[in-house]
Design brief:
The complex is a heterodimer.
Chain A: H1 3-16, H2 22-39, H3 43-71, H4 82-98, E1 102-108, E2 111-116, H5 141-152, E3 155-163, E4 172-181
Antiparallel strand pairs in A: 1-2, 2-4, 3-4
Helix pairs in contact in A: 1-4, 3-5
Chain B: E1 6-12, E2 17-24, H1 33-45, H2 47-54, E3 61-68, E4 71-77, E5 83-88, H3 93-111, H4 125-139
Antiparallel strand pairs in B: 1-2, 1-5, 3-4, 4-5
Helix pairs in contact in B: 3-4
The chains are: A alpha+beta, B alpha+beta.
């Protein structure tokens, strides 16, 4: 799937999705994170919880993505390489669910970096200047979503936040590493997204 | 020590001051200690008058609530009853009103930050630098 088709698909899918108020969305996520902050002591635990929540969201995302694409009459062919997976995810998937496009930077055949310039989750957020917040990955939900959704299409990946705008960098960067291609239990054909 | 050189801006919550900033006119030396403490005293003693004035109008901007010697205290009351108070030595109503409106916008954005608890002291450095920039623009 070429880059421009992926982007065009993403845009048209996004237009069909029901919309939520961006501020409400960001504020809801913000209160979720602050609740976690109140419940857990260490930032590692908080990051882990966010990732787990993202995972639960991610496993449901793929089905919705493919179903909506089908409904819209789009053909999303099985990806022939991990790089294609990355492009479809960044341009179509992200655009459809969040309204923002991400950019892909391939690092190797089995790992890439996802660059997110505009993060709808971190609207209005400013981390306190206490040094203990340096390790908090505010948008770690994304890592879980990526892991969950890719696992549904038989790709086991590990995602980590490498750069975070809230921590002072200029862009949000998520590193995605492919660990294993899982084999479906039933049937010889398996779909890679 | 002309007190119109120093402007004192305080944000007061329900129980305590949440933010304080002094703006000196560029070029002038800092005030001596006693003048500074007097400024705080004058400003905080105007709090009762703010409560009184709040009942007289349905505007957020309460204009000048107190006059002491050469100094005046202007107040802006936010929807959540947070008081923005400015101690000054006579500035145009318009520039103070614009100053308060801009600070109010900054305050609203700050309160949308999930990490900031409402009615707690404001420690954000970026809020501080932005307020000072607004002050330089309207009150310098």
């Amino acid at each position: 799937m070429s880059k421009s088709t992926a982007a065009a698909n993403g845009h048209s899918l996004w237009q069909k999705m029901p919309k939520a108020n961006a501020e409400l969305f960001a504020l809801t996520y913000g209160t979720l994170v602050t609740e976690l902050v109140r419940d857990y002591e260490s930032t590692e635990d908080i990051n882990e919880q966010l990732e787990k929540m993202g995972y639960s969201i991610g496993v449901r995302c793929v089905d919705e993505f493919l179903a909506k694409a089908d409904q819209a009459g789009m053909v999303i062919p099985p990806c022939r390489a991990f790089a294609e997976t990355a492009e479809v995810m960044a341009k179509t998937g992200f655009r459809m669910f969040l309204g923002v496009s991400a950019e892909v930077q391939m690092i190797s055949d089995s790992s890439f970096s996802l660059l997110i310039y505009e993060n709808p989750l971190s609207l209005f957020v400013e981390l306190p200047s206490d040094p203990k917040w340096k390790d908090l990955k505010y948008s770690n939900l994304y890592c879980g979503i990526l892991r969950g959704s890719l696992e549904q299409v038989n790709l086991r990946v590990e995602c980590t936040f490498v750069k975070d705008v809230l921590q002072g960098d200029d862009v949000n960067e998520i590193r995605v590493d492919l660990k294993e291609v899982l084999v479906d239990g039933a049937g010889e054909e398996y779909q890679e997204e | 020590m002309s007190s119109s050189q120093v402007l004192l801006f305080v944000i007061v919550g329900k129980n305590e001051p949440l933010y304080e900033a002094e703006f000196h006119k560029s070029g002038s030396a800092g005030s001596s200690d006693s003048v500074t403490r007097q400024n705080y005293f004058v400003l905080h003693s105007a709090l009762d008058l703010v409560e009184k004035a709040a009942w007289t109008t349905n505007q957020m901007y309460l204009k000048v609530v107190d006059k002491v010697n050469q100094q005046q205290v202007s107040t802006f009351l936010t929807a959540g009853n947070i008081k923005f108070m400015l101690l000054h030595g006579g500035r145009s109503e318009d520039s103070i009103k614009n100053f308060f409106n801009d600070v109010y916008e900054l305050y609203v954005k700050l309160s949308m930050n999930p990490f900031y608890r409402y009615d707690t002291p404001i420690t954000s450095k970026s809020f501080d630098s932005r307020v000072r920039a607004v002050a330089r623009r309207y009150l310098a």
